[in-house]
Amino acid sequence: MKKRILFGLVALIGIYLLPSTAQADNGAVKIHIANFPIKVNGQLVDNKKSRFPFIVYKDITYAPLNWDTLQELELDSDWSESNGLTVYRSCCTSPYWMKKALEKQPYTQELTFNQSTNITYTAQVSQYPIQIWGEHIKNEDELFPFLEFRDVTYLPLTWKFAHTQLMIDLKWTTVEGLSIWSGQDMVMTQIVDDDDEALYIRAGYSVDAPSKMIKVSKSLKESPVWLDDVKAKNIEDKLAENEMPIAKGMKGTSIEIENQEGKLYYKGHPLGQLKEEEQHILGDTTLRIEGTLYPIDDRRQLIAIYSYFPIAVIGPPPNSRFQLFSIIDGQTQAVTDFPFLPQFVQKNADGSVWIASERRAARKGYYPGSGRIAVMDLNGNIRVANTVLNQQDVSPLGLTSSSNSVVNEGGKMLVRLYGIPNKEGSLGEIAPSIVQSAEVIQNGIYEVDTNFHLRRLSGAPDDQEELYLYKDKLGDVYTINHYSNTITNWTKDRYKTWTDRELLNR
Q1: CB 414 within 8 A of CB 477
Q2: Would you indicate the residue range of the signal peptide (predicted)?
Q3: Model-level pTM?
């Protein structure tokens, strides 16, 4: 689902003094100077006086790729007559981007103009070759092409160019306008614990980090505090003691599954038939079968089976699959629409049982349909929410939140819905992180009961983001952005961003 932040998820890049090959009668377009607030790494842009202002074309904001802006965004660029313009980001070789946080200088703006934001100006569509991090851009085919204005290349701040390809965070609000965050050291990486007043966040590796853990008030109004090494270690030790989220629910026990000529049994109970390809030798290995038993009560049992060939490969082992079965009063029944290993099983006060598995990451996105919740009733009947609600993923929240119960006192659970309907044949296939679907049904964070009645609590991150959602002990849901030190409380609809410099300059 592509998103544009009103006036823009905007293009990034202008190269100062880049030769302009477009003529006024060849690809000329009408633009205007952005007339709303724009901040770059927290610094307000003076568009009325800037020689290289941010501009708007077709309701999309464009960023100048002049030298000063490139330096502030910490982006690299190359230019040659034969290859044209290449824009990219140098990364992953040090704990910071181009500059250490405490050595960064304020954003330099050349304030030599006095221009109106109420009139139109003329720009040209760029005519030379353009690459974004190795991808050739067919500028003539782009709905929002790279432009030339005042002899500088302008980058459209679309989600694809800015966020996905150049690792830039973009945030639009009607009050604060457009905020652009780029080249920020990831000082805050993951929320790992909380109490009534604060979140505890694991710090990213930085040459200037004074500690390994940061305390942030849940109000998001106070300055973050670095914990001393002793307090940070105490939190890490507590996390290590309760490492597996399944410990919050019923613990499954390992059981032996019998394979009798391709038919599976548990203590004489028939479970299912192996596929033809599972009954042969693959790479000098035979199929490995692992069983997990969840004893609900004296009438009800739940059995999960994981079968695979133990061959070292990138990704899931060959022919791997999960199967789920219930045994009720000695009778076996396959749960065909829950083909994943449950991460959480819990019996409720009324005797019903939650069965849950959160959406699982893959190399290039996630496994569609892996986010699942189901409920077993008193008679052992199992209903799967994905089927009832027609949702490809219903991902439970709180499985990995150390301080929170997955199920609240009322027996309800928080789930993340992505608005993607169930589609036949989607289970087990790897999907890209950007999922396009015009059939958006529901999208957000919901409270759900054992009858699968939904109550919408809030919006949620765009599914392109793949942000980790942390559920705190009060039931609020938080995220930290990938490319800026931004914490968002989705339940209460508030957020706060700190620069890397102000976090480390303590």
Answers
A1: yes
A2: 1-24
A3: 0.82
